[in-house]
Amino acid sequence: MTVADYDVVVMGAGPAGALVAAELGAAGRSVLVLEAGPAAGRTWADYQANVDHYLAAAVKVPNSPYATSGDAPYPSVLDVVPLTPGGPPSDGGYFVQEGPLPFASDYLRSAGGTTMHWLGTCLRMLPADFEMGARYGVGGDWPLGYDELEPYYERAERELGVAAEVADQEYLGLRFRDGYVYPMHRIPPSYGDRRFAELLDGVPVHLDGADVPIVVSNTPQARNGVPNPAYDGGRGFEPVGAVGNPHSGLRCEGNSSCIPICPAQAKYNALKTLHRAQRGPVEVRTQAVVSRVVLSPDRRSVRALEYIPYDDGSPPGAPERVTAELFVLAGNAIENAKLLLMSGAANGSDQVGRNLMDHPFMMCWALMPESIGAFRGPSSTAGLEMLRDGPFRRRRAAFRAEIANWGWDFAAFAPYADVEEGVHARGLSGEALRSWLARRIPRQIRLGFLLEQLPLRSNRVTLDRRTDGLGLPRPHIAYDLDTYTRRGMAAARECATQVFSLLGASDATAYGPTDAGYVTLDGNGYTYHGSGHLVGTHRMGDDPATSVVDDRQRSWDHENLYVVGAGSSPTIATSNPTLTLTALALRAADGMLADLGEERP
Amino acid sequence: MTGTPLERFVALSAALTGFRAVELWGTGQAEPHLRLVLSACGEEHVAELLAADPEDTGAILADPGLGPIARNVIVLWYLGQWDQMPRHWRDRHGASPADSAGVASAAAFRAGLVWRAIGAHPTGANPPGFGSWATPPAV
């Protein structure tokens, strides 16, 4: 009997991997975290270099501040191009995409994972989101319900540092423990949010033959604000500042750049959890790409992980092998599935890589009759949540809408495109240009609809024969939007039309057949983008024949393998996934501690 | 025609952008901006631009040789980015390797005038403070 190198080896230093490492390390367990990407940002100087890199970037997309490597590549939204039906796959970026539609989301391979450029939205799933099959006959049910996850939501809200008021969040069946308060008071609504609320609250939108009163709802955010002294039975909450500079980021300063980088680190990123993890016996190895899950001869357990160390500019090292009692894959829905497929592991159900989902992100934009002061504050501080559930879910996708604070930013490249239009197309200069911009840009408003997508076997990631810098297969993606989601897009477009009309705003939304994410339904066209929500490729369930992991995210096939992250979600729900994947990671960590013979106090 | 080339560049930039000269000096970008324009468009054309009457921006913008430079100068001040000169200008006046599109520098982006024009601040810099986004807009 040989002694294992570590108690636990974790692939991935994003929010799920860092948190599992922190929980196990806090229990005294030795942990090795293998991260494919660089350590960039773990010192304050490195982090500020990323901020400067962003400021000087010509195209400010989510991945702009961060280093790239051919040895641990990742997708960019700039790779997303229109696909020709029946034509060759697009292989311009990391993904090889066969379509018929492009999967439009990116992610980051880096210490901290994609929380380096997330927005920080921390909505809980609705109770109905766990029971889509039972309630509406579509999508299927989770193997656990809201009440089982509720205590983990509380712990996740502590870990991420969520600012919100319970009173704002009790809608559509969402319930909270008696006396519970969020760690911090809600982030102040933007001036635009307040104008929206004044003009819209209580006024109905007419959709699906029903009247639904509008509620402008403050969004729970993993963004440091004013701690609530009533938190934790009156013990209060201490916000967590920047890694390497703990006095920075204790409050949001209003940098208006949550995506792609919060210069102050007032917004949560997983570097904070990784930093906490290293108070315990936790070792982090970056630029270490896991290349194989090594199974025991009887295939009932995992014996080791193999990884390839690399150093940009030098030839990659030989694969190294590390053993442990437990193994945790926390690489995200694409990377987890890719590794399992490369290793022929955990796939007795043939579900690995299938049911890939995103929230197709559809923007609608308009010009208000008055200035609402666009381009101030976090990207979004409020949303329309009242259409996240309803009987309509039998036939069409539910959605939420974020209310954007940054004008027509991603929708129409404001304010850059406005300046170019003023100077070149309109021939303006001097005071005329300045006042034209001042009259136009502060009035820009935008809604961003996040559409639900059903799990489909055919939306899937497989292995392409094309390889990355280390010779590992690149992800091959097949993706489409079904009629259920397109009907949701039509309803969302109708919702935006009514909302803009109620605001007295002139609609400027424009979609075109040359957009990469252009789809049609009943002769009308809509354009989606990615939300960066990678969900569903290793679904959890209560039947090994139809799911990859159980309700604690342990592989049905290999007793000492956990596969964690939003890839475990059987349906995508109507909330942004990070809070839920964090809650699920905490629940998985409890399972791991039990497997290792620990009892939680 | 009075003043150094840099002073004349700032006087012309003030007329082209609608901001006062003192505000442009205060950005710290006058000198790097002029350097960039010189390297991208050549000394001869820039000298001609700076010799023109800054009070008559209409004539400058209408001039087939000077107009495209002046419009790029406006964009440079407003966004901190250089757009490549139009094809017809490059064909006629010669193309410099320095005439390539991109953000001039992080500092140039931070100093972009568009953010002041709209009562905001450059994204990722000069943060106005916690809760500032809740106040009624100044613009």
What are its keywords?
heterodimer, A: about 600 residues, alpha/beta, seven-stranded mixed sheet, 20 strands, about 20% strand, globular, B: about 140 residues, mainly alpha, two-stranded antiparallel ribbon, 9 helices, about 55% helix
Largest interface: A-B, 54 and 47 residues
Helix share, percent of chain A: 10-25%
Radius of gyration of chain B, in Å, reads 16 Å
- Amino- and carboxy-terminal Cα gap of chain B: 36 Å
Query: Order of helices and strands of chain B, N to C?
Result: HHHHHHEHEHH
Biggest sheet of chain A: strands, sense, closure? Answer: 7 strands, mixed
Count of DSSP helices of chain A? 14
Radius of gyration from the alpha-carbon trace of chain A, in angstroms: 23 Å
Q: Please state how the strands of the largest beta sheet of chain B are arranged side by side.
A: 1-2
Beta-strand level of the residues of chain A, as a percent range?
A: 15-25%
> Could you state the oligomeric state of the chains shown?
heterodimer
Portion in helices of chain B: 40-55%
Largest sheet of chain B: 2 strands, antiparallel
- Please report which band the strand proportion of chain B falls in: under 5%, 5-15%, 15-25%, 25-35%, 35-45% or over 45%: under 5%
User: Distance between termini of chain A?
Assistant: 31 Å
Low-confidence segments of chain B, ≥5 residues, pLDDT <50?
none
Q: Compute the average pLDDT of chain B.
A: 96
Structural shape of chain A: globular
Q: How many individual β-strands of chain A?
A: 20
Low-confidence stretches of chain A: none
Total beta strands of chain B: 2
